[in-house]
Design a protein that fits this description.
The chain is of the alpha/beta class. Helix content is 37%, strand content 17%. The chain is built from 12 helices and 10 strands. The strands form 2 sheets. Strands 3-2-1-4-5-6-10-7 form an 8-stranded mixed β-sheet, with helices on both faces. Strands 8-9 form a two-stranded antiparallel ribbon. Helix 1 (16-26) links the parallel strand 1 and strand 2 (32-39). Helix 1 (16-26) runs antiparallel to helix 10 (217-237) and helix 1 (16-26) packs parallel to helix 11 (247-254). It is globular. The two termini are 27 Å apart. The model has no long low-confidence stretch (mean pLDDT 96). It binds beta-D-ribofuranose and calcium ion.
Length: 315
């Protein structure tokens, strides 16, 4: 039987780790068909995330990829950004030229709605790598699309690792907790890549040098991005290297056997300022709340990096 590539929309706020995730997807056409890339405000403001998304598509040699600008601010709260992690441009590290490929005219939220209405039901997977603003807005504006979504595979949240931007919350969920709440209550099948798993896919010298040794422009860029990106986590956590958060989403689509988790209930804190954006995951099954997400906790990091390096090498 011929395997059909899985149709996805990447919703993203690049970000070095977002950039690696986009490269991984574009390097894997036999597994993944990227219908479009939608930018959202997050790590840096929207004018930079949409620009960065186009830079990455050009770097992949896929300037025909359709890139859209979505929401420039969270649903209710002021935008919180993370230049202290990703640098002023969001993609600090190597020198990058301005992209030539166009930004699509259509608003990113309208693209998500139109695509889900056009494609057969249950044939499109959403891959959010940043705050969930665009996805929630699409669900609010067009509730008819909700039962048409095949799956949402997202990076966000944490349970055992708790928070990275506040003591209680992970960045993507913290930036737009109201949006996350809408998505987690939507009833769509959700796979979550929380910090609990992404903190297990750490770069180290050998892994970064393997990217550089590919001898290609994308390989060199990935090495330089991760070189830049790892200084923050090494200082903060004393860890070996940088967590490649967002590529976990794409790696899961390519080879879910790399990951292990549990179907649990996940609720989003939206009331308390102290714990705003916390992902309250019922890992131990102590409530009767129904499971609404596959919450991933473990990964085979060596196989993950082998897959990532091999695929980046194809670009
Ligand atoms: C998430 O926040 C961003 O800084 C990263 O790109 C990732 O999506 C990790 O908390
Ligand atoms: Ca991101």
């Amino acid at each position: 039987m011929t395997k059909h590539p899985r149709k996805i929309i990447i919703d993203t706020d690049p970000g070095q780790d977002d950039a690696v995730a986009i490269l991984l997807a574009l390097a894997s056409p036999e597994d993944i068909d990227v219908l479009g890339v939608v930018a959202v405000a997050g790590n840096v403001p929207l004018p930079l995330t949409q620009r960065n998304a186009r830079i990455v598509c050009e770097l992949a040699g896929k300037p025909e990829t359709r890139v859209f600008a979505g929401s420039d601010a969270p649903l209710q709260r002021p935008l919180v950004t993370a230049e202290y992690v990703h640098g002023k441009t969001g993609l600090d590290g190597p020198q990058l030229a301005d992209p030539v490929m166009p930004l699509q005219d259509q608003h990113g939220v309208d693209f998500i709605i139109e695509t889900l209405r056009r494609e057969p039901a249950h044939s499109v997977t959403l891959c959010p790598l940043g705050p969930l603003t665009n996805i929630a807005r699409a669900m609010q504006q067009a509730p008819d699309i909700i039962p048409r979504i095949q799956q949402i595979v997202l990076m966000g949240g944490a349970y055992f690792e708790v928070g990275n931007v506040t003591p209680a919350a992970e960045f993507n969920i913290y930036v737009d907790p109201q949006a996350a709440d809408i998505v987690f209550k939507s009833g769509v099948s959700i796979v979550v890549m929380p910090l609990d798993v992404t903190h297990k896919v750490l770069t180290n010298r050998q892994r970064i040098e393997a990217f550089r040794a590919l001898g290609t422009e994308p390989g060199r860029m990935v090495a330089e991005w991760t070189d830049f990106f790892e200084r923050f986590d090494m200082q903060k956590y004393g860890s070996e290297g940088a967590p490649l958060h967002d590529p976990c989403v794409i790696a899961y689509l390519i080879d879910p056997s790399l990951f292990q988790g549990r179907h649990v209930n996940v609720e989003i804190e939206t009331q308390s300022e102290l714990t705003m954006g916390m992902t309250v995951a019922d890992w131990w099954g102590v409530t009767n709340r129904p499971a609404n997400a596959l919450f991933i906790k473990d990964v085979d990091a060596d196989r993950f990096f082998a897959l990532l390096t091999d695929r980046i090498g194809r670009l």
